[in-house]
């Protein structure tokens, strides 16, 4: 990625030009977001990986589960672009299927953490008596490094894909909760909330209809980063053998099962590793871009 | 100052109490009977009843928690189920390696992150800055275990510059042990240098926009003096914070790195405890690592006063 320097000029892309004509918030956001070429590139890479993940069962060149003992541990060739693994399975097909599973885990973690974190954050930010208790609880959860807490939950829950989602979801919930609470404390004091209260709006109506829509920017940014962290942490858990069961080819599992062979067959770890790096990197760049695009202070400066 | 320390310490105790609660509950949310799960399918009902008795599982939950707290206060972390020794002893035996690994990794992460971050801020927007920021983002996206495996393949297998795995013979001296930890420390240090670099850069940029820095420049001081003497000193607080934070994160990161390099440290102990469902070890390790994490954060906060004479508590 270092070969593509971050440009600050606006880019004459069809999408951004089109977005400029309409005035919907989403179009304005995209226009802001795509001011930097690197963000556009990362966004496209993200879409491509997502497309591979969605279409994986239909577009893999070989059956990712089909073994071929005679053709095992073959380096990359014209037929097998990424080589074959210790059972003669096509590594490219497995990396493509791995995209489906790793992205699924990441996405589900984002959903769990965002929903739980938003509810807790809103509760802490709007219901004063709950604030202290909930925030000390997030302090306690954040006193464990992510990976260690995730390992501990996995030890209690046992290895399965949905337990990984649950464990990582709980691990990342406090991050969302803190951001939502902080933003909620600001929005809560605004005159339009006072107006809504004066008009007799109920608490749920104020929280979900008036406050929540104003917190979407920080939640969106946080969700993007959690997506990236979740993919990294899932890979580490699976690598340690305490994550998704080893028969499921997530990227972390592929690297874990290659451990015995990688000294002779480095393609076994090279390609799944590159898939992780590319995905996490493009998510982080898009996340940074979103933060810049959504930051009201930066917008005023322009 | 004393009042502040006492207040911070009290706050820390509250967090640690909640941490202990989380740690306690983790071994209680296990589906089914924890004693049966720990002993496996071959256990007889008598064995299970005996372990239940030993672990105090027949008491009410609150009593169990209070008993657990009582143990912790006496630094008793319980007995390992598989290692036949106290958890505290098992942790102590493994802590030398993990401590050394963490220190070396923090050193590497600092040596990369701080100077490059300063340079990046001094040359803001230039090619060096953009490359550094880009590389930092790349480094933060690479799983440390993947860096580890790649280093083993190219530097230890293809060229025998470093040992492939392990911690050397039992009688190896400190230097020999450190040689075994060079590759693990790089694998762990590189991803973590990214955060230090970004914080250093942001903090330096923030300080360098202040009037007194402009004045220093206007006086005609050499740029190097302005950056290193005037700006850096005031930019140290966020840098210190992030180094403290990174240290704690690396203790956890060591779990993965030790597995890659087959190192018999605390991380290795934790992973095998999880695979064997040795809950007392998992709980003890969680408690100790999070206590270190919290203590480091406290230490960093107190260090502020030393670094910045304006800070008075």
Characterization of this structure:
Chain B: Pfam families: BPD_transp_1, BPD_transp_1_N. Chain B: It is a multi-pass membrane protein. Chain B: Belongs to the binding-protein-dependent transport system permease family. Chain B: It is found in: Cell membrane. The complex is a heterodimer of chains A (302) and B (313). Chain A has 302 residues and is mainly alpha-helical. Chain A has a single domain (35-59, 81-295), classed as MetI-like (MetI-like fold, Orthogonal Bundle), CATH 1.10.3720.10. Chain A is 71% helix and 0% strand. Chain A is built from 13 helices and no strands. Chain A has helices at 14-21, 25-33, 37-59, 91-126, 128-142, 146-157, 161-188, 191-198, 203-211, 216-240, 251-257, 267-294, 296-301. The two termini of chain A are 26 Å apart. Chain B has twelve helices and no strands. Chain B has helices at 2-26, 34-39, 45-55, 61-73, 87-122, 127-141, 144-158, 174-208, 211-218, 223-260, 266-276, 279-307. The mean pLDDT of chain B is 84. The chains are: A mainly alpha (302), B mainly alpha (313).
């Amino acid at each position: 990625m270092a070969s593509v320097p971050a440009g600050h000029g606006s880019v004459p892309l069809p999408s951004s030009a089109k977005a400029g004509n309409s005035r919907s918030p989403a179009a304005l956001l995209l226009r802001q977001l795509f001011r930097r070429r690197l963000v556009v590139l990362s966004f496209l890479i993200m879409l491509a990986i997502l497309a591979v993940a969605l279409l994986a069962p239909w577009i893999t060149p070989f059956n990712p589960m089909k073994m071929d003992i005679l053709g095992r541990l073959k380096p990359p060739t014209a037929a097998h672009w990424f080589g074959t693994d210790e059972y003669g399975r096509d590594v490219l097909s497995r990396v493509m299927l791995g995209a489906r599973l790793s992205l699924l885990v990441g996405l589900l973690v984002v959903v769990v953490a965002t929903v739980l974190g938003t509810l807790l954050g809103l509760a802490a930010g709007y219901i004063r008596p709950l604030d202290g208790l909930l925030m000390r609880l997030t302090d306690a959860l954040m006193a464990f490094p992510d990976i260690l807490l995730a390992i501990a939950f996995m030890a209690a829950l046992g290895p399965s894909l949905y337990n990984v989602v649950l464990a990582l979801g709980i691990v990342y919930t406090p991050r969302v909760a803190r951001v939502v609470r902080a933003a909620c404390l600001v929005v809560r004091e605004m005159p339009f909330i006072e107006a809504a209260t004066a008009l007799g709006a109920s608490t749920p109506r104020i929280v979900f209809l008036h406050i929540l829509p104003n917190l979407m920017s920080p939640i969106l940014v946080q969700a993007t980063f959690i997506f990236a962290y979740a993919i990294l942490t899932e890979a580490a858990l699976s690598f340690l053998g305490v994550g998704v069961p080893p028969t499921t080819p997530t990227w972390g599992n592929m690297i874990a099962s290659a451990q015995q062979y990688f000294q002779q067959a480095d393609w076994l770890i090279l390609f799944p590793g590159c898939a992780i790096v590319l995905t996490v990197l493009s998510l982080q760049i898009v996340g940074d871009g979103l933060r810049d695009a959504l930051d009201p202070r930066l917008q005023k400066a322009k | 100052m004393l009042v502040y320390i006492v207040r911070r310490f009290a706050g820390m105790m509250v967090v640690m109490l909640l941490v202990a609660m989380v740690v306690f509950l983790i071994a209680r949310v296990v589906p089914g009977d924890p004693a049966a799960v720990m002993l496996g399918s071959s256990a007889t009902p008598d064995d299970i009843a005996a372990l239940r008795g030993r672990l105090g599982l027949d008491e009410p939950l609150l009593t169990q928690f209070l008993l657990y707290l009582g143990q912790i206060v006496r630094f008793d972390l319980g007995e390992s189920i598989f290692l036949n020794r106290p958890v505290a002893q098992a942790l102590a035996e493994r802590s030398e390696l993990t401590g050394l690994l963490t220190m070396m990794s923090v050193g590497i992460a600092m040596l990369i992150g701080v100077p490059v971050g300063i340079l990046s801020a001094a040359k803001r927007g230039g090619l060096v800055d953009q490359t550094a920021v880009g590389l930092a983002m790349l480094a933060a996206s690479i799983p440390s275990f993947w860096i580890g495996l790649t280093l083993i393949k190219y530097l230890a297998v293809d060229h025998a510059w470093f040992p492939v795995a392990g911690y050397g013979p039992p009688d190896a001296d400190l230097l020999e042990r450190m040689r075994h930890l060079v590759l693990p420390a790089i694998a762990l240090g590189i991803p973590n240098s990214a955060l230090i670099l970004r914080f250093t850069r942001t903090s330096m940029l923030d300080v360098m926009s202040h009037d007194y820095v402009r004045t220093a420049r206007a006086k005609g001081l050499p740029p190097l003096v302005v950056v290193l003497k005037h700006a850096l000193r005031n930019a140290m607080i966020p840098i210190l914070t992030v180094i403290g934070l990174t240290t704690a994160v690396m203790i956890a990161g060591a779990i993965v790195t030790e597995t890659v390099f087959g190192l018999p440290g605390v991380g290795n102990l934790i992973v095998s405890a999880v695979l064997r469902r040795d809950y007392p070890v998992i709980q003890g390790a969680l408690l100790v690592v999070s206590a270190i994490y919290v203590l480091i954060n406290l230490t960093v906060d107190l260090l502020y006063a030393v670094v910045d004479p304006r800070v008075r508590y």
